[in-house]
């Protein structure tokens, strides 16, 4: 593939894009109870999920192969999961929450590319993840959430009631990320940074 043809494929995400979000968050007075602050964090999270959805779409359309798709997902993951250290501890915690939510998005995309969609019921995977978290088996919990993520990539819908009944913890944060992935797959429009 020539460099021109490769360029035509598209850039899915960039360090600069992430840094623009981070700079914006650094400048804003953030209050998670405030709707504008919450929206900014959701947009940041959705923007990364949209990048993942675009990689998956390019892969499914045959515009990129498995290796390139996995490479692109890894690139987005490395950019997004790089530790961010603000002077403001609350902001650092909020970004950490966004990063935590996005972890299963990356793993689910990789699992989908390498292994396809798992059999079974999306809600049952989420329930099993919540049970595993209650038993303090976080590896199993993440595994179930990743499997649920492959179902979402395939078009299954998260039951919002189920989500609201999950006790706050890692699983609820991960499900929040899957919700962003679901939105991104249904409507992969770019979130404007301003």
Automatic annotation (TrEMBL):
This is DUF2150 family protein. Pfam families: DUF2150. InterPro entries: UCP022079 (IPR014518).
């Amino acid at each position: 593939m020539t460099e021109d043809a490769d360029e035509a494929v598209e850039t899915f995400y960039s360090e600069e894009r992430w840094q623009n979000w981070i700079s914006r968050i650094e400048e804003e007075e953030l209050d998670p109870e405030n709707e504008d602050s919450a929206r900014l964090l959701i947009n940041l999270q959705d923007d990364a999920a949209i990048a993942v959805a675009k990689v998956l779409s390019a892969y499914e359309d045959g515009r990129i192969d498995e290796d390139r798709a996995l490479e692109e997902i890894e690139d987005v993951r490395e950019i997004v999961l790089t530790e961010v250290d603000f002077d403001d501890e609350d902001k650092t915690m909020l970004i950490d929450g966004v990063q935590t939510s996005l972890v299963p998005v990356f793993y689910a995309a990789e699992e989908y590319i390498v292994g396809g969609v798992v059999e079974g019921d999306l809600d049952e995977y989420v329930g099993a993840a919540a049970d595993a978290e209650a038993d303090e088996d976080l590896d199993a919990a993440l595994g179930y959430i990743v499997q649920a993520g492959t179902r979402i990539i395939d078009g299954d819908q998260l039951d919002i009631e189920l989500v609201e009944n999950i006790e706050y913890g890692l699983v609820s944060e991960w499900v929040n990320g899957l919700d962003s992935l679901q939105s991104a797959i249904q409507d992969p429009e770019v979130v404007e940074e301003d």
